[in-house]
Amino acid sequence: MAHGSAGEGGAESDKERVDRELIELLNELRVSLPGVQVLFAFLLTVPFSSGFTRLTAGQRGWYFATFLATAGASAFLMAPTSYHRILFRRADKDRMLRTASTFAIAGTVLLSLAIGGAVFVVADVMYATVTAAGTTAAVAIGVAWLWFGLPLWRRAHGG
Prior knowledge:
Strand content: under 5%
Structural class: mainly alpha
Largest sheet: none
Radius of gyration: 20 Å
Number of strands: 0
Order of helices and strands: HHHH
Shape: elongated
């Protein structure tokens, strides 16, 4: 690949590309992390509230699955930072970037499942299970399209 700084009108080098992509990934994680942290903090408090004992066994199961998905999302979305720090100044930054990107995608998948689970539990407590299922399906379809479907469609169509 041609060397030279992209800012100087030349093509960016592989090293510059990897550095830029790593910065972009870490910035993307800065956007995602507050949301997953707020959801996780909320879910940590729920079992200690007085109304938790009124949940059915099914609702508790959904809650626990949602809690675990949120914990997993937190772990995967924070993993690139520690992964980068531990492998800092190693020669294979491109491999580190690919691994960190995989972690970020896994965390985003788990976060999407956690959002769906949280919507279901709240809607199921408030309304009938059928309403909760429909609401959850609508939210899940919206999240799946915005977070995965649209980007993959654009990628497949050169956009």
